[in-house]
From TrEMBL:
Keywords: Membrane, Transmembrane, Transmembrane helix. The keyword Transmembrane helix applies. InterPro entries: DUF2550. Pfam families: DUF2550 (PF10739). The lineage of its organism: Bacteria, Bacillati, Actinomycetota, Actinomycetes, Streptosporangiales. This is DUF2550 domain-containing protein. The chain crosses the membrane at residues 12-34. It comes from Marinactinospora thermotolerans DSM 45154.
Amino acid sequence: MGEPLSSEALFLIVERLFLALLVVSLLALVAVVARRFLLERGGAVECYLRRAVGPHRAWRIGCGRYGSDELSWYRIFSLWPRPAAELPRRGLVVMGRRSPTPEDLAELTGDLVVIEVGWAEPDGSDPKEPVYELAMGEGALTGFLSWLESMPPGTIWQS
């Protein structure tokens, strides 16, 4: 068996390990900030998302990016390049609008508006229950509703 490490050698190992962890943490932070900058530069808006029903109903902060046929929602604190949720535009219905409840205010701020969304039934009728809830500011909500009601020129929806 080898000799025990001296306190100086042990201190040097711990110091280098700490510096390596610090560098990795800083690189991850820079990557998250750069990803958010690129998302917002591409026209994304900040909004919160949660499932309307189910066991995991915590609000998650993210950015919504409008596409021609879907809203792609990305988590803010993630390095994953793909959206965490995609809300297809076809058949998307806003089922309700409200202010945050006292329970919501534990995770949201009072200046946000919460909307419930779902998708139309196959027969064209309105959905019976919401699938997601989105929380966003008034300006972002106006943009969302405009996106939902408009359709890019030349777009042909497939049945």
